[in-house]
Amino acid sequence: MEPTRYTILLIYVFFIAGAVWNSLGLFQNVMSFTTPFVLIISGVAAFWMTYDFSRKTGIVFSLIFIGVWAIEALGVATGFPFGTYTYTDVLGWKILGVSLVIPFAWLFVIAASDAVVGHFFGRLSSVLVAVLATGFDFFLEFAADALGYWHWQTRFPPVSNYIAWFVISLIAVLVLRDYSNRRIELRVPAHLYFAQLCYFVLTVIGVKSGLLAL
Predict the structure, then answer these.
(1) The pLDDT of residue 214 is above 90
(2) Burial label, 118 (beta-carbon count in 10 A; 0-12, 13-18, 19+)
């Protein structure tokens, strides 16, 4: 088996094991401690495996990081554009009510979605990237509630949340198209998208159903 396949296999094993542990209620202290680091590493890794290294790419990384943090801070303070929600302390340090991990999560979803579009569809469609990013967030929202990352004032995330995700993701990837070059080899970040998606979906099923609880 080639090294890349081993890497992809290990990624799936890592995230599926995490979902099983969440469902069984195992290693919760370890999971709580490591989750912020996993999200940060995933965000940086997905971004740099999807786009070529360059000064411009670094600037765009910084602009998206600051931009989504500012929008999240606005959202926490006013309820616009996502809806009314509150971050807990699970993801670590917060500034203006927003965990510093959140921009890395945004960068992960945007970059990994772009990798999926490139690897599986062979396209540069910005709209499709935004659709995949919004679809990922759909499952992420329910897992985040189950894991206590953040909570909505309403029972379910409002439609405005998904509209905002689509628009912000679309703008971010359009900026990336202008200032960054997407790599040709995208297998690892593309599968990283699906591995994390499996993690959140399986976590929701396991935690909410209680079928695997010890």
Answers:
(1) no
(2) buried
